[in-house]
Amino acid sequence: xxxxxxxxxxxxxxxxxxxxxxxxxxxxxxxxxxxxxxxxxxxxxxxxxxxxxxxxxxxxxxxxxxxxxxxxxxxxxxxxxxxxxxxxxxxxxxxxxxxxxxxxxxxxxxxxxxxxxxxxxxxxxxxxxxxxxxxxxxxxxxxxxxxxxxxxxxxxxxxxxxxxxxxxxxxxxxxxxxxxxxxxxxxxxxxxxxxxxxxxxxxxxxxxxxxxxxxxxxxxxxxxxxxxxxxxxxxxxxxxxxxxxxxxxxxxxxxxxxxxxxxxxxxxxxxxxxx
Length: 275
What we know:
Layout: E1 4-12, H1 16-26, E2 31-33, E3 37-42, H2 47-64, E4 70-78, H3 79-89, E5 93-95, E6 98-102, E7 112-116, H4 128-140, E8 146-150, H5 156-163, E9 167-172, H6 175-187, E10 194-197, E11 207-213, H7 216-221, H8 223-229, E12 230-242, H9 246-250, E13 256-264, E14 267-274
Parallel strand pairs: 6-7, 8-9, 8-11, 9-10, 11-12
Antiparallel strand pairs: 1-3, 1-4, 2-3, 5-6, 12-14, 13-14
């Protein structure tokens, strides 16, 4: 590990979800979402990423015909500082049946434990979309169910379902996410039935539960694939949806009815079944 790393603080006035999609597609490392934007950290200089964000913002403003304020600040910091500070900031969480705790904290004696390594995982349960997805899984997944986790990220949702007794397949288009999911599963002493790099179209089975915690636009693009992966009476859990895009997503799932809507801050998780 190098002695120093670069931190790029990104602040945007609007359309944070579009900038998140851009960073997901272009940044070779993970990034942290904040209320005002994002924080990107890397041992490599981030000037190219900053330039790319400026170009993306310029193109987006032209496409939308509106002004979007973008503020970029890059600093050089000691590596040991952010790792220690970040680890200390991660607190255990109780989410329905689950207890999400860093690997250095004591597990719960009464809840289902999911251990996380925040230096490794993308999803730690602290983001509203992950938290509400875990709530849905806690309520709708039962022992013996089959479940497909689409866009598995850190694997935390699939791991939770396995610990409830489900047989879980998972997929992600990002090979780093697949690797992280496997490592986190091993750390939690569970196994995925199948896991692959790619989309839900690679599934060869149908499932009692399909969960997709992605972003609104992707949920519309892959709607048909998600439906094909679901058993006739199955439960579809959609998350990663900003409330202002909820109707847009639901427009692609008109043949489903809303069983439950779980909202936290400006994020929404939808539990759907065929009508």
